[in-house]
Design goal:
about 140 residues; alpha/beta; Rossmann fold; six-stranded mixed beta sheet; 4 helices
């Protein structure tokens, strides 16, 4: 199975999740400036909310790599909303990409809000989530 991990992170919160998944699955996490080199069965796309939406760089990545994405798995951080899933669903649909109904979200630090997140419990949870997506046991 070909797995890829991409992320967009302005503050490092989302990058932490991507790196935790990468360490768990033995796959390198790269930021969205790195296009997919080959077709992936599963793409873990780690993102967050900036100015009330998914960043245009994430949207551009999905659109320009759509033909190489088998199933997109949404992984997100945000301090103020529950998830980027609804927004990612729209982005994926517009690009013709299959979005998994499995997703992971945790709080992210924003100024003083949720200052400790993502914390060790969040990182453990995202590693477990990644294994579950692939049907792997702990």
């Amino acid at each position: 199975m070909n797995i890829a991990i991409r992320y967009y992170s302005q503050t490092g919160n989302t990058k932490k999740l991507a790196e935790a998944i990468a360490a768990e699955l033995g796959v390198e996490a790269k930021d969205v400036s790195h296009p997919l080199e080959e077709k992936t069965d599963i793409l873990f796309l780690c993102n967050s909310v900036y100015w009330a939406g998914i960043d245009k760089k994430v949207k551009r990545f999905v659109n320009t790599n759509a033909l190489k994405i088998g199933t997109l798995v949404n992984v997100s951080t945000a301090a103020l909303i529950e998830s980027t899933y609804k927004q990612m669903k729209t982005v994926a649909a517009e690009a013709g990409v299959t979005l998994s109904d499995q997703e992971f979200h945790c709080r992210g630090k924003f100024k003083a809000l949720h200052a400790s997140h993502p914390d060790e419990a969040d990182l453990k949870a995202v590693r477990e989530f990644a294994r579950s997506v692939l049907g792997r046991e702990a």
